[in-house]
Specification:
The complex is a heterodimer of chains A (about 250) and B (about 425). Chain A has helices at about 10-25, 50-65, 65-80, 85-95, 110-130, 155-165, 210-225, 235-240; strands at about 5, 30, 45, 135, 140-145, 170-175, 180, 185-190. Chain A is an alpha/beta fold. Chain A folds into 2 domains: about 5-125, no CATH class; about 130-250, no CATH class. In chain A, helix 1 (about 10-25) packs across helix 2 (about 50-65). Chain A is elongated. Chain A starts with a strand and ends in a 14-residue tail after the last helix. By secondary structure, chain B is α/β, with parallel strands linked by helices. Chain B has helices at about 5-15, 90-100, 115-135, 150-160, 175-180, 185-210, 235-245, 275-290, 295-300, 310-320, 335, 345-355, 360-365, 370-375, 390, 395-400; strands at about 45-50, 55, 55-60, 105-110, 140-145, 165, 220-225, 250-255, 325, 380. In chain B, the strands form 3 sheets. Chain B has a 6-stranded parallel sheet. In chain B, helix 7 (about 235-245) links the parallel strand 7 (about 220-225) and strand 8 (about 250-255). Classes of the chains: A alpha/beta (about 250), B alpha/beta (about 425).
Chain lengths: ~250, ~425
């Protein structure tokens, strides 16, 4: 069993593809640098992440397949699901090898699994765009907490940059403890050192803008008034708006 | 924003909630530097109320005062309900503030008719104009065109709005006259026609001048109340078809009648709004728009009302067993779409995948086809041939009928003991 160890980054994974081709051995198992080695590991190769190699692989993919296809691979990577990396590597090799229908044959198990994972991730991305709420702080910066299932925050940033172009905001992934700060020009990735006070997703009232509370109340009352009592269907509501997002939504909370 | 505005917001949301449309799709607009907002072509729902309906837009009435007395409407002048009117700045400020917090995708503004249609329409258009020109807002705006509004004002509104809508409400004119004596079809179809003309003229202009202004780029929509009058589903679908044939008509909504004015005896006394019927109509609507069905295939003279027990596509298949079984490895896309259990998505996947190998029932399941339904209508080489011809229509119908055991009905086998405290 051929085993590759890499640092669990996308660069590392793409370098692993590069190494597989240059060594002419294709791994059966991918392990992180700190993972325990299985008992009968056989040959082990440690991949040293190299941006030059990974860029070559990525460019090769872009030449070989469409932009939408490369986006799909990126979605699968951001799912952070166990086994997604092995699937990706297998699939990238398949694409380079020009296996018939490697991208379009939905009867193929790998193609379908890749598409399913990508679909899940893009749904989660859409959920974040739909249900993230911005809270205005006293200094005029809007704070948007999120705790998505998959690591989709980077995928939503272009949308928020385009939409909220004339306000400063901080979109923060509470589960993974990093975020993006937008200063009306561009969004940069930030990790806050002391983010403990932000982790419950609510701005403290002392740093909240003065009318923020009123707008949250207004929105809550508005959605309540909009409900038609004769048609109550809480199951449909849950189906459309998963309960895991409710924690940070004023209409469902506080 | 003050407490007073909050109170008005509640009253006017209460009045606006019976309008079904909340779509924010149909137009893409990028942000321009220094302005707020953008529009996403696919539409984004930002919340869902407890009745499961989406909230994409700030759906609100400018005022719920109304000079009309339509029997089906909560805001009719003879109703004793709290009335309120919002000012222009109140609406624009609220829209912008909600928008900045990602609560909404845009504004859906409607209004009761005050003084006369033109006066009302002018105020609605004025708000859209302020949002675009004063607040530099690029988000979605849906305006209601007031029945009887003049061409100039509809044209003005179309320049700032993304979508305009006029509600048909009642599917035949005779019934409309009965329930809404102040309205007639003229007053509804005229603004609809103005919108259509505006959209087409602007499309034509933009072919020649790239920066010619867009006119209601997301087209128009309308709404019909279902169950308030005696029209059957065939009448409703026929009207919907003629409406969809108009170039700018994007959506027809169906709204199950809710008995809001129970004192008015021109209306049927329904305990429960006809939700199942509404659902079946939407299914039929989808069949007409995405599956290539004609309205008279879905509801014909022998069965003018949709079957409430099974969906319209299955009902059609059961009436036309001669079309089936369909061979999924050979049939063309249009025929695949006619198979119950195979939707647009799975039909596309089948067509793109069968170049590389045979489609089996196993792969069909994995592609997302509903084999529970589809198995009676297809052959795919290896499946044992228990199609609709072998089992008979009655059997398929019985097996596939939606039956949900009612939770409220107690299990009859269980003895209940009456304890008294």
């Amino acid at each position: 069993m051929i085993t590759f160890r890499y640092d669990k980054t996308l660069d590392g994974l793409l370098t692993a593809v590069f190494d597989a081709y240059s060594r002419r051995t294709f791994p059966d198992v991918l392990l992180g640098t700190d993972d325990d080695v299985p008992l009968f590991a056989g040959e082990i190769h440690t991949v040293m992440s190299d941006t030059e190699k990974s860029t070559r692989v990525w460019n090769g993919l872009e030449r070989k397949a469409s932009q939408g296809f490369c986006d799909m691979l990126l979605h699968v990577w951001l799912s952070e699901l166990p086994g997604a990396d092995e699937l990706l590597l297998k699939y990238i090799v398949k694409t380079f090898a020009d296996v018939a229908g490697a991208t379009m044959n939905h009867a193929d198990d790998d193609v379908r699994r890749i598409r399913q994972i990508a679909l899940k991730v893009s749904r989660e991305r859409l959920h974040v765009i739909q249900f993230v709420r911005f809270q205005k702080a006293a200094d005029g910066i809007y704070f948007a907490p999120a705790a998505p299932l998959y690591n989709v925050l980077p995928l939503t940033i272009p949308h928020f940059c385009d939409r909220f172009a004339d306000q400063m905001w901080l979109a923060y992934d509470i589960r993974r403890r990093y975020g993006y700060f937008y200063d009306m020009k561009k969004a940069v990735e930030v990790t806050l050192e002391n983010d403990e006070n932000l982790l419950d997703g609510k701005l403290d009232e002392s740093i909240m803008a003065e009318d923020e509370k009123l707008f949250q109340q207004a929105w809550k009352d508005y959605t309540k008034a909009l409900t038609i009592k004769e048609r109550l269907n809480p199951r449909l509501q849950r189906q459309n708006m998963p309960a895991r997002f409710w924690k940070y939504m004023p209409e469902k909370n506080r | 924003m003050t407490e007073q505005t909050l109170e008005k917001l509640k009253i006017l949301a209460e009045s606006a909630k019976y309008d079904v449309s909340c779509a924010s799709s149909g137009v893409s607009r990028k942000n321009r530097p220094g302005t707020i907002g953008s529009a996403a072509g696919w539409g984004i729902c930002h919340s869902f109320t407890e009745d499961g309906r989406c909230v994409a837009l700030l759906k609100i009435m400018l005022t719920n005062h109304c000079i009309y007395d339509c029997a089906y409407c909560i805001n009719r002048r003879s109703n004793d309900i709290p009335r309120a009117t919002l000012s222009v700045t109140e609406v624009t400020d609220m829209t912008i503030e909600f928008y900045r917090r990602n609560y909404i995708e845009g504004l859906f503004l409607s209004s009761g008719v005050v003084r006369n249609p033109d006066y009302t329409m002018e105020r609605i258009a004025r708000i859209a104009k302020d949002l675009r020109n004063v607040h530099h807002y690029n988000g979605y705006i849906h305006l209601k065109s007031i029945p009887g509004a003049s061409r100039e004002l509809v044209n003005e509104a179309g320049l700032y709005a993304d979508r305009l809508s006029v509600n048909v409400e009642i599917p035949t004119e005779a019934n409309l006259r009965m329930l809404a004596p102040e309205k007639d079809y003229q007053s509804i179809y005229k603004p609809m026609f103005y919108i259509q003309e505006g959209v087409m003229a602007s499309a034509d202009e933009r072919k020649r001048f790239r920066h010619a202004p867009r006119f209601a780029p997301a087209g128009q929509s309308t709404q019909m109340i279902v169950g308030a009058t005696n029209e059957n589903d065939k009448d409703i679908l026929r009207l919907a078809t003629t409406l969809y044939q108009r170039p700018s008509m994007k959506r027809v909504y169906y709204s199950g009648y809710i008995h809001v004015n129970s004192y008015d005896n021109r209306l049927p006394a329904l305990n429960q709004s006809p939700l199942k019927r509404e659902n079946r109509l939407y299914q039929a609507d989808w069949l007409m728009r995405f599956y290539g069905f004609r309205f008279d295939e879905i509801a014909d003279d022998s069965s003018p009302n949709l079957d409430l027990e099974i969906d319209p596509k299955l009902a059609w298949a059961l009436r036309h067993p001669e079309v089936f079984p369909v061979d999924v490895n050979k049939a063309d896309y249009a025929l695949l779409l006619r198979v119950p259990g195979i939707g647009v998505k799975s039909a596309q996947l089948i067509v793109s995948s069968r170049k590389f190998g045979r489609i089996t029932s196993d792969t069909l399941t994995k592609m997302g086809a509903v084999m529970k339904k589809a198995k009676y209508f297809i052959v795919c080489g290896e499946l044992s041939a228990h199609t609709i011809h072998e089992t008979g229509e009655e059997f398929v119908r019985r097996v596939l009928t939606d039956k949900k055991p009612s939770k409220k009905m107690p299990d009859k086998r269980q003895l209940t003991l009456n304890f008294t405290d």
